[in-house]
Specification:
The chain is built from 13 helices and eleven strands. By secondary structure, the protein is α/β, with parallel strands linked by helices. Strand 4 and strand 5 form a beta hairpin. Helix 1 crosses helix 3 and helix 4 runs parallel beside helix 6. The structure holds ligand C2E and magnesium ion (MG) (3 copies).
Length: 299
């Protein structure tokens, strides 16, 4: 099924359930042959300071606009790229694109004389388990930073719980090497794996992203609210900043504000945006691309 999505007439690729091995194999081949720089694109979703509405940062999200399939979403190809190892050069490219874009955004903020109260946005980049385990990963991060002059504290790397579950010394050593560079680490999709709050104690983690499934359930029961509130407060006690993922409505925003959740991301504020629109968001988070979200309602 291919359907029209958005102004750019990109069709979204959705494999039917009965599509099997052959289809996967074909997509895999196409993925492995696609020249990275010209085949993929990176979108940037704002991570919003919930109290002020400003863009605290962005998450880089890769897309694959495919000649015959339409836009292939990461859910369809990241696992394939993991299997073949293609994720290593692809992930390295996303990282360097995202760093270049961060420099551009920070330059815009510095040049904007009206933006006296605005901080330079940070950039958050997803790192898949295989990419993180690759021998050259830490060096690559170091090289990208050296080549760009980006302040290391402006870069966040998102790891999932599956990386932390393999509780070996290499994982911890590599995480320390990354934080020694000044780069921060976030746990992504918190709550979906075998979540253990001990991760927050045992690993050098600066940010925690509460999975969308918890935000979806937020208004449904006092227990759900208490669960998220508990995570927010505990994280705060441990000096870990919380980001709520997948905020889609005003009610969720208000509940999160009431429990003191500092940061959030979701379609209520903005979808993943092309670089130029992300740059506009940095300078004018209240512009009309915010849809029905109004800043006053969050104050
Ligand atoms: P993620 O890291 O948890 O990223 C958040 C996903 O939630 C994104 O999907 C984003 O578009 C979506 N999202 C954000 N707000 C909302 C909302 O309010 N409602 C809904 N329904 N969705 C929302 P996306 O871009 O399709 O990416 C899916 C996953 O693919 C990501 O989940 C991440 O695990 C992976 N991914 C994306 N880009 C990369 C990449 O460059 N490298 C690696 N290794 N993985 C990536
Ligand atoms: Mg992520
Ligand atoms: Mg996530
Ligand atoms: Mg997720």
């Amino acid at each position: 099924e291919a359907k029209t999505a958005g102004k750019r007439q990109w069709r979204r690729y959705r494999p039917a359930l009965q599509e099997g091995m052959a289809e996967r194999h074909e997509l895999q081949e196409s993925l492995d042959q696609a020249p990275i720089e010209t085949s993929f694109t990176v979108l940037y979703q704002p991570i919003v300071d919930l109290a002020s509405g400003a863009a605290a940062g962005f998450e880089a999200l890769v897309r694959w606009p495919h000649a015959t399939r339409g836009v292939v979403l990461p859910e369809e190809f990241i696992s394939l790229a993991e299997e073949s190892g293609r994720i290593i050069p692809l992930g390295a490219w996303v990282l360097s694109e995202a760093v270049t874009e961060t420099i551009r955004m920070q330059t815009l903020v510095q040049a904007d004389t009206w933006a006296t109260d605005r901080h330079s946005p940070y950039m958050s980049v997803n790192v898949s388990p295989r990419q993180f385990r690759d021998e050259g990963f830490v060096d690559r991060v170091r090289q990208v930073l050296d080549a760009s002059q980006l302040p290391p504290s402006s870069l966040v790397l998102e790891l999932t719980e599956s990386v932390l579950m393999r509780h070996d010394d290499r994982v911890l050593a590599d995480m320390r090497a990354i934080t020694d560079l000044g780069v921060r680490i976030a746990i992504d999709d918190f709550g979906t794996g075998y979540s253990s709050l001990s991760y927050l104690r045992d690993f050098p983690i600066s940010l925690l992203k509460i999975d969308k499934s918890f935000i979806d359930e937020l208004g449904r029961s006092p227990q759900q609210y208490a669960l998220v509130e508990g995570i927010v407060h505990l994280a705060d006690t441990l000096g870990v900043k919380v980001i709520a993922e997948g905020i889609e409505n005003q009610n969720q925003l208000e509940l999160l504000l009431s429990m003191g959740c500092p940061l959030g991301q979701g379609f209520l504020f903005a979808r993943p945006l092309a670089a130029d629109r992300a740059e506009s968001f940095v300078l004018a988070p209240n512009a009309d691309h915010l849809g029905n979200w109004s800043r006053s309602a969050s104050q």
